[in-house]
Design a protein that fits this description.
The protein is an all-alpha fold. It has 21 helices and no strands. InterPro entries: Sel1-like, TPR-like_helical_dom_sf.
């Protein structure tokens, strides 16, 4: 008992020391980011990097190098490129990661070009097969076909027969692509340039763009962004929207919000975080009834926006927690539960929240029960150490480590090995 009390005092003193020492806190978050990245948990890794920057009040070469590796592993090549650019702006040539970053820069550029080309080839292959309704191919990001189609329409404005033919095709298709193309006609005013009812047509286009919650960053989002929100460069807006394709939230408001909230922006896609947050909230309001999972993800993004320091968005922990809970309540999921548990853990000593250790454990347990890998590992650790209101129970710890291992958690496999168990995931 004395030993346990002494250990708790040491842990408490260590946490207090870190809180008073920004560099120590930054080091802690950077190491946690490295560990999370090593376990394939890129979202947790980026969260710790954000906390690291907050503690330091600036970025550094090591942070930018790790960001690059994270986004490369996620195949988000545009984001990786932006962090590569920052790295070379601040790093000296003798920096430990310098040569590796030169190599990663080349790799990233090649991967981006290859991914773009593969998607174009696939779209052309489908077109050659006579597939005009792409509703079954919404996993293919539109790098080429829709842009080419739009350009062809633009250049054929004077060909009445061609425009009418394409308009009828667009009306016929029920897929997301068909709706997007029909929206294009309305928004561009093709065939209705002299019409006095252009506002009605514009409204029709807006509804088409927002119709069908599962749009896969189709042309509708591009047109919606470019026309409705005054993008200076349509191509830039479209390109940025395409980068969200892996986010699996496929509605225009989210896409616009994401674009405006991007930490780095290209010409034609201005950084407007307050406006971005507004569109996030609009997207949440529209989606929570028809697609609770997508709405939950938007709520999580809103919480993230309130967790960072920004010139326009005031960091607000109360709103951060409120939106984390909205994320969980809208669609109960392990990631949201884990984020709430982490929030309470990092703010445990804040009297505003009056949270108990067992309450923290309850949220980690919810995360684990919902199949979230980091939650499983945290519950295992809690059983192993008797943390967060859990009674020490080695057998239950092993069970949860195995569940986490079956989900691909390398740290869980390592923990089992330290306990003398050579566990083979899904076969143990």
């Amino acid at each position: 008992m004395k030993i346990k009390i002494i250990l708790l005092l040491i842990i408490g003193l260590s946490l207090n020391t870190m809180a008073q020492n920004p560099e120590a806190m930054a080091k802690y978050h950077f190491i946690e980011a490295q560990n999370a990245y090593g376990n394939g948990d890129n979202n947790t890794a980026t969260t710790h990097l954000e906390d690291c920057i907050e503690a330091l009040t600036k970025t550094n070469a090591k942070i930018e190098a790790l960001y690059t590796n994270i986004y490369l592993s996620k195949k988000e090549y545009l984001k990786a490129k932006k962090h590569i650019t920052v790295y070379f702006e601040i790093a000296q040539e003798d920096h430990s990661d310098y040569m590796k970053m030169i190599s990663l820069s080349t790799t990233n550029e090649n991967n981006f070009k290859k991914a773009e080309q593969e998607k174009i080839v696939e779209l052309k292959r489908q077109a050659d097969m006579g597939v005009t309704d792409f509703s079954n191919y919404d996993e293919i990001a539109d790098f080429g076909s829709d842009n080419d189609w739009a350009n062809k329409i633009q250049s054929s404005r004077n060909s009445t027969s061609f425009i009418k033919s394409e308009l009828e095709k667009a009306k016929k298709y029920k897929s997301a692509q068909g709706k997007a193309r029909l929206a294009f006609f309305y928004l561009e005013g093709i065939g209705i340039i002299e019409s006095e009812n252009w506002k009605d047509d514009y409204t029709k286009a807006e509804n088409l763009c927002l119709d069908g919650v599962n749009l896969k960053l189709s042309l509708a989002c591009y047109i919606y962004a470019r026309t409705k929100y005054g993008m200076d460069s349509g191509e830039e807006a479209y390109f940025n929207l395409l980068q969200i394709a892996d986010g699996k939230i496929d509605i225009a408001d989210y896409a616009i919000g994401y674009m405006y909230l991007s930490e780095y922006t290209d010409e034609g896609t201005p950084y407007k975080p307050t406006l971005g947050l507004e569109y996030y909230k609009k997207g949440f309001g529209k989606l929570k009834v028809v697609n609770s999972e997508a709405a939950s993800r938007i709520a999580s993004s809103i919480a993230s926006a309130y967790s960072k320091y920004d010139n326009e968005i005031t960091r607000d922990k109360t709103l951060q927690l409120e939106w984390l809970k909205k994320s969980y309540n809208t669609f109960p999921n392990g990631r949201a539960a884990f984020s709430i548990a982490d929030f309470y853990l990092y703010n445990y000593k804040n009297p505003q929240y009056n949270i108990s250790k067992s309450e923290i454990g309850k949220w980690y347990q919810r995360s684990a029960d919902l199949g979230y890998r980091p939650g499983m590992s945290q519950v295992a650790y809690a059983y192993m150490k008797g943390y967060f209101g859990y009674s020490m129970n080695k057998n239950l710890a092993i069970q949860w480590y195995k569940k986490a291992a079956n989900k691909g958690d390398k740290s869980a496999i390592k923990s089992l090995k330290e306990l003398g168990i050579d566990y083979i995931p899904n076969k143990g």
